[in-house]
Specification:
The complex is a heterodimer of chains A (117) and B (285). Chain A is elongated. The mean pLDDT of chain A is 88. Chain A has a single domain, classed as 434 Repressor (Amino-terminal Domain) (Orthogonal Bundle). By secondary structure, chain A is an all-alpha fold. Chain B is of the alpha+beta class and 285 residues long. Chain B folds into three domains: 117 residues, Arc Repressor Mutant, subunit A (Orthogonal Bundle), CATH 1.10.10; 54 residues, no CATH class; 94 residues, Immunoglobulin-like, CATH 2.60.40. Helix content of chain B is 37%, strand content 22%. In chain B, the strands form three sheets. A five-stranded mixed beta sheet of chain B has the order 4-2-3-1-13. Chain B has a four-stranded mixed beta sheet with strand order 5-7-10-9. Chain B has a four-stranded mixed beta sheet with strand order 6-12-11-8, with no helix packed on it. In chain B, helix 3 crosses helix 4. The N and C termini of chain B lie far apart (56 Å). In chain B, 48% of the residues are buried. The model of chain B has no long low-confidence stretch (mean pLDDT 90). Classes of the chains: A mainly alpha (117), B alpha+beta (285). The interface between A and B is large, with 40 and 40 residues.
């Protein structure tokens, strides 16, 4: 898995992508994070730094891994888990656009905190 | 294992899951709520060629296409839940126009049976008919549609289940019920207000679950009905009442003495985490 130095711009972009994929507006995310809405837009514009504890809370809220959100993990899933390799193989049945979207989705949620009871 | 054995095992495991999440034998089930209770994340995305995907990443995640009708999404969610429960490897179901998902191998067949019995156990189905003083072999199509709505499955799915899995109706009866689709049944009542494909009927026998609809859906009920919450609007239409879902949120419908139910409205074709699907817009937007 490739890693790279995270930039504020990359984190800003990933927060926006993760929020939108989770189905939340900026206002809804702000309310759930107990923040003001302008704070979310400042973060997504790359004008405000995200503290480490905030990054963890964003990751939990958006259902993604901290590593992906922080930009230290690529947008490609790690398929070393054989069960994921099965999915990757089966995905070949789908339309190319859908394959890309599912792979990107897996990359983001992979390693997110488990909710398994 | 032969298919009869697989079906029997699927039905008994589906009952175990229902028990585990605290559903009574006479309660309808919402597959998405069950998955969440089991700690599985459910997500919706607009994926044209997908029905559903089970991913272990490494925690379990079910991904559903937001482009399908509600009953279909519920059945697919239950089907992916089966793959999780039976510990099948991660799994992808491609889009298919058939009444049930593809079952070209035993795992798929068993997952379909599990889904059918999770959402439509024989006791629950029979209770649904009994509550409406009706029988599967003679109930009006409108009653069958009300039961399908209550169970959260498509009308056709319920008719197939009654015929092929439960054996409660014969071929002739199944054909008669399928002659008129749900759209036509509701269209007779709601006229021009009937939506493209979604068709919901809620009657006074409805119990033990929220009415789950999306913005733009209409639900046909008998009067009198009052509603609380900004998510729905009520319109009188002849001898019926039409409830129109207008924005995301939760509220309740009150039918007078002794009958009321919650209603949950999700965004139309919602994409995102299932736990946010009924979330109201924040005040400052």
């Amino acid at each position: 898995m490739a890693t790279h130095e995270p930039t504020r711009e990359l984190i800003a972009e990933r927060v926006r992508i993760a929020r939108e994929r989770a189905g939340l507006s900026q206002g809804q995310a702000a309310k759930l994070m107990d923040m003001h809405r302008p704070t979310i837009s400042e973060i997504e514009a790359g004008r405000r730094r995200v503290a480490a504890d905030e990054l963890g809370r964003f990751a939990d809220l958006f259902g993604v891994s901290v590593a992906w959100l922080a930009g230290t993990k690529d947008d490609e899933p790690d398929l070393s888990d054989p069960r994921l390799a099965v999915v990757a193989r089966e995905l070949q049945k789908l339309k190319p656009d859908d394959i890309d979207r599912v792979m990107q989705f897996i990359a983001a949620v992979q390693g997110a905190r488990s909710e398994e009871g | 294992m032969n298919r009869k054995t697989l079906a029997g095992k699927a039905a008994s495991e589906a009952l175990r899951v229902r028990q585990r999440v605290g559903l009574a034998l006479t309660d309808p089930a919402n597959a998405i709520d069950i998955a969440e209770k089991l700690g599985i994340q459910v997500w919706f995305r607009a994926l044209p060629s997908v029905e559903g995907v089970l991913i272990r990443a490494p925690h379990p995640v079910i991904l559903l296409s937001s482009l399908r009708p509600a009953g279909r999404m519920s059945f697919t969610c239950a089907h992916e839940l089966a793959h999780y429960w039976f510990n099948h490897a991660g799994h992808v179901d491609v889009v298919d126009d058939g009444p049930v998902l593809r079952e070209d191998n035993d795992d798929e067949y068993q997952a379909n049976m599990f889904a059918a019995y999770l959402l439509m156990p024989k006791t629950t189905v029979q209770f649904g008919f009994a509550q409406r003083a009706a029988k599967p072999d003679s109930a009006a199509p409108l009653t069958v549609l009300a039961i399908a709505t209550w169970l959260g499955v498509g009308y056709t799915t319920l008719v197939h289940h009654l015929r092929y899995n439960l054996g409660l109706i014969n071929d002739e009866r199944a054909k008669a019920l399928l002659r008129q689709g749900p759209k036509a049944i509701v269209g007779d009542l709601a006229g021009a207000r009937a939506p493209g494909t979604a068709a919901f009927v809620v009657d006074r026998a409805w119990r033990a679950r929220a009415v789950d609809i999306e913005v733009g859906d209409v639900v046909v009920l008998d009067p009198p009905i009052s509603a609380s919450g900004a998510c729905v609007r009520i319109e009188e239409l002849g001898s019926r009442v039409i409830v129109v879902a207008v924005k995301p949120g939760t509220g309740h419908l009150d039918g007078g003495v002794g009958w009321a139910t919650y209603v949950r409205v999700r965004r139309s074709r919602f994409e995102g985490r299932s736990i946010f699907r009924h979330l109201e817009e924040a005040d400052d937007e």
